[in-house]
Design goal:
Layout lengths: L2 H15 L9 H6 L4 E2 L7 H7 L1 H19 L7 E11 L6 E15 L4 H67 L5 H36 L6 E2 L16 H11 L1 H22 L5 E10 L2 E11 L5 H70 L5 H36 L4
Parallel strand pairs: 1-4
Antiparallel strand pairs: 2-3, 3-5, 5-6
Length: 429
Amino acid sequence: MPSPVSLRAIKQSIAILIVVWPLASGMALAQAGLPGVLGSRLEDFIPKVRQLNPELAAATLDAAAAQARIDAAGRLPDPALRTEFMDIDRRGSSVLPGRIGQIKYTFLQEFPLWGKRGLQRDVARGEADSADAKRRVMELELTARVKVAFTAYYAAHEAARLTREITGTVRRIGDLANQRYAQGSGDVQESIRAATELVMLEEELARLDAEKRRAAAQLRLLTGAGVNVTLADPRALRRLPPDAALSLPALVERARTTNPAIAAEAGMIRSAEASRRLVDKSWYPDLTVGVSGVDRDRRFAGYEAMIEFKIPLQGGLRHAQARDAAARLGAARARQEAVALRLEAELAEQWAVYRAGGRIAALLHGTHLPQARLALNTALRAYEAGSGPLLPALDAQRRYLQAGVEHLRALVQQHASLAEIERIVGSDL
């Protein structure tokens, strides 16, 4: 009997597509004041994820910390205060000082020259840009997971609704088969077939209910909602974008321009370039200026001034630092190109899956489902009128249910691919 196979296929498809990870706890509910009922539309979930997901909150704080380091970078180092005790006389035969001739107090300040402070800020600025882009990457990934989970939630709900519809039909014709058998005009095999089919459908309803609860649990975790928050039955999937917004060359160009993963690597490239220039500047010494006041016999005896700079004799050290900076810059550029190529491949794959899902869904909705529904109605009328056997009616309901399940699978495939496409291009379409 083919119906269990087809129903298990939608169950497995839903299970695979629920790929969101447990990232939040129920404590966030009290912090955010979530409503008691949530979930009839996808738009109910996405803002909550952006506000409450703790992993995204951590990435946001990391970006804020990197931004704060820009202001710290390029600042003058702390000055130094040096105290010198000079002209110390011994006390007799003791090693203890008997008299201090003079005390010198020196104030020292180092000044990085040759634009080094600006380059230090450029290094920090590139790292901050990369951290903010990584925060955006995480936001897009979480949003895509919510979209996939909501699609699975909707598919489980609709598959259960369709199965309940068929269950009611099978129950009705099963009652009719029992009546005919009791009246002596029916076949006991028909009653047994109807009862067996009904049990299998009830089992599948229980499985689909479990899948729906699983999808709801994942959505609660992503939004930080607790177990006390009820998810309303989903009304509909979101509207698909027009075909004009899904040109593959345009999507590829858009991804290269706006994808935050590429922007994160671009920030690291800018930071590595500034680090390389900073290493080049290390051949030019920094300047340390000092001013001293002299206390002689508890009287101000004058002052001294000094200028100090380091002599860059350690060429091996700087050559090694230069090689390190050049290698890190090359690695950052290679990573950016690798990310771009990977995203292009993912985009082409998801675009093909989206197109295939759309074509399958259109064929099923426009042709296969109406035909299966017509065949089911015809077989049911024939059986109810006594002009046809039960088996064609059961076969017709299986075909109708299978067509509905396949239609839902195609929709799940299409919407999941759209979520991945939007993650790659960096925004909704």
